[in-house]
Fold each of these.
Amino acid sequence: MNAPALSLSDLVVERVGFGIFVLDREMNVLMWNRFMQDHSGLAAEKVVGRPIFDNFPELPRAWLSRKLESVFQLGSFAFSSWEQRPYLFRFDHDRPITGGVDFMQQDCTFMPLTREREVVAVCVTVSDVTHVSIVQREREEAVAKLQEYADRDGLTGIANRRFFEARLSDEYTRWQRYGGDLSVLLFDLDHFKTINDQFGHVVGDGVLREMAQRVADVVRVEDTFGRFGGEEFALLLPGTPLGVAMQVAEKIRHTIGDAPVDVQGVSVPVTASVGGAAARAGVPTYEVLINEADAALYSAKRQGRNRSIAFA
């Protein structure tokens, strides 16, 4: 005896390119289409008539139960995006492993099935959005990298002036609101023009990169170290009183000047002058704080260079 022919609606359900399954209130599977069979490896006769968790104990039981109960109670559609929950079922995907996802990324829709105005079951659709998720992640990573490049100085790799001032503005606003301590150091390399004139700009650039790396290696994670332009640099020290900041200034000065910089086979002696200032009552803006640190820096230069001076 021949098996009964499938209706057109049955054929559509079987052949569509997304998963369809139906659950009753006790979480028993009432329908399981070809997509679900192919990706789970379980035929409909192995799944239908049994609680969904019997074959898929790894499913998020509490979350899925809440989602289904809301549909039964409210009689309205519900939706879950891969951005909220990357997947419901741990199905393999056919994208390259370089995509950075372990399982098929899925959007799920929960549709009430009613009889005489009562929700008797919920139809769940599972859409494969792995490609979309990979493209979006790649786009977000590209944007993040572009943002990072926009915040970084091209020569030294540390923060640029725009990013430094944005961080200083944020920290200054926080200081105005909550108080505490906040200090800024400005420093530059002594007689840097002479280094460029004597050894050339390639060596000069190498000196700047090496100096930036030396300082970056000794500052705290919570500090912001940036290049202001040319041979001038800045260090933002949240939660740091001026006295401690000037100890940091001396540490930086010695980090820079205690050993010459070797670039292109040339040993270049380098020293630095440092000026420091701290937020306090009467300093109305962060720009004033920068100006005070800058004044202290030039005082250090006038007094002979290779020294640290605090604004007073």
Note: The chain has two domains: 8-136, 152-310.
Amino acid sequence: MSEKIKVAVLDDYQGVAFTMADWSALKTQVEITVFNNHLTDDAAVIERLLPYQVICAMRERTPLNRQRLERLPNLKLIVSTGKRNASIDMKAAEELGIEIKPTGYIGTGAPEITWALLMAIARNIPAENNNLISGNWQTTIGTDLVGKIIGIIGLGNIGSKIASYAKAFDMNVIAWSQNLTEEKAAEAGAKLVSKETLLKEADFVTIHLVLSDRSRGILQKKDLELMKPTAYFINTSRGPLVNEKALIEVLQEKKIAGAALDVFDTEPLPKEHIFRKLKNVLATPHIGYVTENTYRLFYEDTVKAIEEWLNQRN
């Protein structure tokens, strides 16, 4: 009997990989190990993954760069949840003969978490919840959404959904991205403006761009300082779209009212990071896509991808 294929399922933080999909069809051919904890050290990651022919990577939690891939000679297949994973070096994988298979993706989680964070920071929900739990009562005054201006940077699928939410709350929608046209903006119910105008006029600025060399650091301190002192910044896309040091500075200096963040330059966020301590930051641990339907699709498609790969080998 031939030795079983070794499969590593990475970064299953919630310990749900085996409950979200039926893996039984694979059991006769593969040996599956699920890892719930996250490693960051290169040597530790390589030591952990060295025995495995198949790696199931959850989004962008564990980077698989050239340095790591070159030191994993047994690796033949990476199944990556979602349509794209910027933390996998695709060119290196191809050169090393490692096949990449993506899973499907449900795109509702990101706009939903964006709107949840926007409403929570506008109405000071975390602070007032803490008041209630600690035996106190009202201490803050919320921000109305009706008539306010929301500035959307990036009016793709997610940005357009945010525009529709904003319209339902009778907000005024303005938008900007490098290739956005007046026609496309109008189709989404938004008005195209310059980046500078958007930052100056918006009461809420939310960014929805794909992280690339062109978009990385698209918001610097000079951009953030254009915002109103009463405005809020929301980022549920990717941390490096904004200069993190600059964002921290404008928050510490109270040049904007606050920020609601679901993404960061380094994830998981270091325990002593300032974002965990600033009073005008509402932060969540990159949970935009962490929903039951999305996880079920991720893991069900992962099983299918491994099955297809095994069948190709036989």
Note: The first helix runs from residue 42 to 49.
Amino acid sequence: MATYLPTLKQLQYLVALEEQGHFGRAAETCFVTQSTLSAGLRELESLLGTMLVERTRRVVRFTPLGSRIATKARRVLREAEELADMARAAGKPLSGDLRMGVIPTIAPFLLPRILPRLRAEWPDLKLYLREETTGAACDSLHRGHLDCVLLALPYQCGDVESLKLFDDRLYVAFPGGQAIDPPPRIAPEAIDETQLLLLEDGHCLKDHALAACNRPELRSEASMLGTSLHTLVQMVDNGLGVTLLPAMAIRAGILRHTSVVAVPLDANHPARQISLVWRRGSPREREFQLMGESLIGAAALDGMSD
């Protein structure tokens, strides 16, 4: 066994530098000065007897070994965090810090309705929220930057566990002037692919909408212009096309002050599944189960589950 081992602080500096690609920014994320971070990394290199980072005036470049060690260091830091999580979970559940990711097509519609209940049920919980697209949230989860994520499934998020909260039905939204007497439901075949507006790439709702319609040609024909659901609603309200909206957004009032009409999509799988997701094997799994139960209760009370 080696007489001297790297410290967690040194590994934290290494991982921060790899993620930021800049000594100054890495130092800021670690809340130390740039000279302190640089000295810590030199001590790590001296301890390991090898160069990990090539330093120039403009570029920070990791050696091949440095990149491999940074990857291992990230896992070590995550395991160290889970040691503390394990002790906390064995004591008082859902107390202390918890970092939750939420995707943009859920955050503004669901959080205002569930956060009051979470605060009331778990007053010692310090919840830190981070809004990210689905792919970025899953990456942050596996890097250890997040403890859990509120996602819409199906989505390939890696080696995770999930708890279904509720189904979120999809609706077809179109300008109010297009139909005096709108039908009770709209089949995917009735959607004009040249008029369909969807979110840009990176938002899983686009894939859920296309999968629900089960029309492969929509992927190439649809005008994927929207950066948010609010933008899509305004585009529809101005007669630029039709779109697909989740029920939770409609219940939250996204169509307020517009003439847009929303009708349920009549398909075999017309809903996305809202779920709480965490890393498989996390020592806080029981806490996530408790949080999920609270979220299910809040959704039921608020009538969010279809």
Note: Residues 95-306 form a domain with the D-Maltodextrin-Binding Protein; domain 2 fold (CATH 3.40.190.290).
